[in-house]
Amino acid sequence: MTRARFPVLFPLLLVAACSAAPGGRAVVSGAGPDELLKLRSGPGLEYRVVLGLPDGTALTRRDCVTELGQQWCRVSLAAAPGVSGFVSGDYLAER
Q: Residue 95: its pLDDT value, please?
């Protein structure tokens, strides 16, 4: 009985985990002490790097999309809202 529910529940849990409210606050987390999270001009590795963001950078999350199985979130800098782009959702934490 538990196995039968797993295929139904897993997609719901995945969607719930990825559905942070647009306009919500987020912070860069997990890039590492000597690494920068790349803010890109589009949702994917093939887009140009706008700038690097260290851990702890405050962001405003706009929306997220999935490209080739990777979640990309459109964000802007909390301190400079005119600076925006896409980052991997794997490196964002709710604030």
A: 80
Q: Which tops the pLDDT comparison, 13 or 78?
A: 78
* Element of type H or E holding 77: strand 70-77
Helices (H) and strands (E) in the chain, counts: 1, 7
Residue 52 CA, distance from chain mean position: 14
Bridge partner list, 58: 27
**How many separate domains does the chain show?**
1
- Residue 75, domain extent: 21-94
| pLDDT tens for each residue of 26-61 | 999 998 888 999 999 999 999 999 999 999 999 999
CATH of residue 53's domain is: 2.30.30.40
